[in-house]
Structures are given as structure tokens and as C-alpha cells.
Amino acid sequence: MEISKVTVIGSGIMGHGIAETIALAGYDVNLEDISDDVLAKAKAEIDASLDRLVKSGKLSDKTKVLGRIHYFTSIPESVKDADLVIEAVPEILDIKRQVFAQLDQSTKEDAILATNTSNIRLTEIAEGVKKKGKVVGMHFFNPPVVLKLVEVIRSDYTEDEVFEAVYDFSKKIGKIPIKVYKDTPGFVVNRINAPESLYFCLVLDKGIAKPEEVDRFARSQGLPMGPYELMDYVGIDTVYHSLEYYAKELSPDYAKCQVYNKLYNEKKLGLKTGEGFYKWVNGKAQIPDAQPTKNVELMDIFALEINEAVKIIEEKIVSPEDIEIGVKLGMNRPFGPITVAKGLTNAEIKSKLESLYNKFGVSVFQPAKSISEGRLKSLISEKFEPPVRGQQTEQEKPSIVESSDPVILERNGKIAVLRLNNTKNNLINSAVLDALEQQINDLWHDREINVVVITGNGSVFSAGAQLDSFFSSTFDFLEFSRKGERIFKLLSEMPKITIAEMKGYVLGGGLELSLACDIRVATEDVQIGFPEVTLGLIPGWGGSQKLSKLIGESRASYYVLTAERFDGKRAYEIGLVSRLYKPQEIDAETLKFAKDISERVAPISAALAKRLLLRSANTSLDDGLEMESMAMGTLYGTEDLKEGISAFLSKRKPNYQGK
Fold this sequence. Notes:
Blueprint: E1 6-9, H1 13-24, E2 29-32, H2 36-55, H3 63-67, E3 69-72, H4 75-79, E4 84-87, H5 93-106, E5 112-115, H6 122-125, E6 135-140, E7 149-153, H7 160-172, E8 176-180, H8 189-205, H9 211-220, H10 227-234, H11 236-249, H12 259-265, E9 279-281, E10 284-286, H13 298-314, H14 320-330, H15 337-342, H16 346-360, H17 369-372, H18 376-381, E11 407-412, E12 415-420, H19 430-444, E13 451-456, H20 474-493, E14 497-502, E15 505-507, H21 509-515, E16 519-523, E17 527-529, H22 543-551, H23 553-562, H24 568-573, E18 579-581, H25 586-600, H26 603-616, H27 621-636, H28 639-650
Parallel strand pairs: 1-2, 1-4, 2-3, 4-5, 5-6, 7-8, 12-13, 13-14, 14-16, 15-17, 16-18
Antiparallel strand pairs: 6-7, 9-10, 11-12
Helix pairs in contact: 1-2, 8-13, 11-12, 13-16, 19-20, 22-23, 26-27
């Protein structure tokens, strides 16, 4: 797959830098943006950049380079002959999707469609694109003319030939590419940086140190710029949006940051607005005099970077060697986390991570599996085997259904599966609640369905409520709480057997949803908990009432008031879940379990038994026994009772009709 004609969409800092890089390598390149005025600014920036190269002796003549760059204000016109199109528009999903929709219509059938996104998963950007196999990630680092790194990212759909062609082209334009085999938020360098961005926010939130004290410490360690000065330089809005995205896609822990949110809302974005953590004058941060803090250690940062690097190796996203190359080149450092890890013991790193977890209370800081098990050195030294595509069995794949519906309904015989479908972590917002209520009402009188399974689309059940929802008043927020309570109560009273399939994260509102189900099954490693009190909230969809009834007041008080998380094994021990499955098997095993129940249990009997159990906590024994005898009388006249007795005597499976 030969690449000779290239178009870059978007002429901002990254876009014009990428175009200049390609032209410097001897290729003709089209640069497209919305207006001639915008392009004129980009052209001036390119001209100034080339002047600096000439002045430094790295370029003899800029005229030929400038002659290779062609400017357009129309996407169709700029891409009609392109072999490779690189999208470099702002890091806003809707804008990127609009661009890719046009590229899908305007490019040649075999044109490669690359995105320079720094965080957003390719699968999200390519939603609705017909040529999904041609979509690939090509993430340059700022400034593109200077920094050598390019992350080449493969999505679930990217054709191998496309992946290799972009990797080879990156080399031809003088870059050092690394291969990212899986489509994950932040990819490699930004993903490894994510936990420390959260760390530096929490340092301020908890009053551990001031920005200037930390930045003075960083400079004392030989770094050219401290973390807060760097965030000001990059833009607080960039950091804010990154953590917001990671909170939805990686872990809700990333939503715990407060200080970045405050600066963003006050429009104190750093250099670009003149003030962020510091005031900026003539392009320089005015950092107050301060002594370097002793409350932050380099080992904190090293441990967090190593931990995240281990996670992405475990996930088969990238090799240890490419992690080292990526961090060194992308962050302009002499060494990366793999080199640091080789110089430390597993015990040292594990101890530091456990200390950070205990100090800050965020699970992102907990040791990765290989570190917990003492296998760090073997993981980073053994040969990396890239994931082989197409060799997963259906049972091993998390059940992912392509749909834009907030709750997806699937029917399987007498079973209905309801999949939450909102962000990777299946966060619950008003649209999800509305869809869930509609599905419950539709299934309520459906005699063809005996069992309803509640799960999440993908590998996560639900990490809770979507905290970025807007409420105009206290009363609106109160009504949102009542809405969730009402719908979850509706689910608990549904005349069907309901099963919560708990996997990945089951937090906050997600846990409350599972508590509204009759039966809970889980993976051993699922993360369960109520984080609300750490966010200034309480469990507001019935959790404060239901949990104590299921596991006892003492245990419920502990988990609600400490916000401590626990895993599936612990949930099984305390009686919260009834069955445990392996992560790669839970979708298939839950369906198998539901199928068995749907064929063995008489639906009217199950519905009446549910009502008796629900009322038992608030009913006297005498009243409960009276209701029980009335239910028995009701069942005596049903066709299902006759079928059940007949099947028992005939030693065959019953065929209940719910009559």
C-alpha cells in the first residue's frame, strides 16, 4: 500500500506542524481548514518555523518545502486524490465524527483515514464510518517538527495492511513510530501520564503542598518544568477534558479531581488566558518563591508510571520496549518507566503503590496484578507477543453490541437481556433511566419472558451515575434521585426473576441497580462499592436502605461510610452475590444460568414468591403467613401447577406458559 499523496485536515498547532513535517520529508501535502484567514495564520507559522530551521543550519532552502504545501478550504476538494488523510481538528468527539463522515464520502475507496487524536478511542471516532477498516490512529507529539514519536494505533476494525502502511510511512517522514495494538483511551504515553495528572490534582485538593512548592521540587530534580507550570503551558482545559474522558472510559476515580475543575470553570486555563496555577507575563510563568516540598517524592511518580505501564502490557496493548521508546521520545526524557522498573525491586514498587492508595483512596493507584503477584520483572523482560486477531472464542469476548440505544434489549428464548450502553463504564444518566423504565414496563406483561438479566455492554456493569449531568436547581437534583428510586423499585417489583451480572465496576448507582435485582452473580475481580460520601453525596437510589437488609446493618454501615471497595470474592462471602464466574466466562455462564431458571421455574410461582419476599421485611409474621396462604390458593387454580405436577410424575421437563 503505497502512500504518496497526503492531506491534513485542520491547520492548528498540530495540523500545520504535521503538514510541515511531511513536506520536509519531500512529500507534497494538502492542508485544509475552514477559511483563508485561518490558513494564512498557519502559513505564517510554517514560514517562521522553517526560518528557524534555516537559521540553525538544519535546512538550506525553505522555498522547496513551502512549494510542497497546498492550501484548501474544502474537504472534498483537498482529499479527492489522497492516499492518506490525517485528521488534526480539536479534541472534541462530535467535531471529529463530522470530519470523518465527510472523509468517508469524499475519499478514494482505498484511502487511509488517520486521526491524530491524543486520547479518544478510534472506535468512537469511526462510529458511522463505512470504511472502518481504513481508520487508524497516527498520534504525533507537540511540536511535530521537533519530537520524533508517532503512536500508530490499531482499532478493532483496522486492517493489518493499513496499520503496517502507516507505521512504515511514519519512518519515511523521519519519525520513530511505536505500535499500539489495542484501542484504549490515551493510548500509551498519555495513558501512562493519566494517574500522575490525578495525583498532582489530589496533592492540591488535600492540601499536601502548593503548586510552587512542587514545581520548585521538580526543578531541583533537574526537570526543566514542574507539573503545574507544564499544565499551565499545555492548557488547563486540555488536562480537564482528558481526565473527564478517562473518568468515563477508564475509571471513575479520575472524576475525583477538584482543583482542575475549579480553574476550568473560572476560565483560568494557563498561558492561553494569562492565568492558571500562575499568572503569565510575556510567555513566562510568574512562580512565587518557595522552598521545594518534602511531601512529594519522585518515587511517587515513578511508581504510578510503572504501574500504568504494567497494566497496558498486561492488556496486550503495547510492548515494554515501545513503552520505553514512547515515554522517552514523547516526554523528551532520558529514560522511561521500564528502565526505572529494572532498577527497583517488585516489593519497593508494590509498597509505594499501596501507600499511595491508602493515602489518596483511589483504586487507580492500587498495584497492577503482576506487581501484586510479584511478577513485575518477568513481565517486563519476557518476549512480548502481540495479540493475535480473530483467535478469541466467542466465550472469551466481552459481549459488546453495536448500538446507540442507552439500554439495549436482546431476547434469547424465555430470557431478556438488558444492556446498559452509555460510555465504556456504562454510566447512568436520565436517558438510561428513561430507557430502563420503558423496557421494564414493556417486559412486565410479556408472557414469553420469564427471566431478565441486567448487565453492561462490554466488560463493565456500571460505574454509577454520570456526574457531569446538569441540574438547574436543588429540587431538580432531588427529583433525579426520586426518579432513580422509583425506577429501581419498579425493577424490584417486576413479576420476573431478575439477575444482575456484576463485572468490571459496580459502583454507586450501578451497585444500587444490582441491589434492585433478585439474584446477583459476579466475577471474582469485580470492583464493588459506594464512593458517594467521598464526593459529598450519599447513595441516593435506595442503596442506604437496601444494602443493610441484604448484608446486615453493621457491614452496610462500614461500606457506605468508608466508601471502601470490595471484590467479588468478598461479596460472595458476605452473601451479596450468589455465584462467582471467571471474567472471560461470565456473559456465557450468566446466560446459561438464566436459561436453566427460565425452564425450571413456574413464572406465576416466581412472581408471587417475589412479592412475599419483598413484603417480609415490613410485615408481621401473622400477616406474612396469611399472604402466603392466599398465594397458595391462587396458585392452585393455575395451568402451571397442573403442568408442574404432570411433568414431575412423568419425569420430564415442565413447559410452563405462565397461566
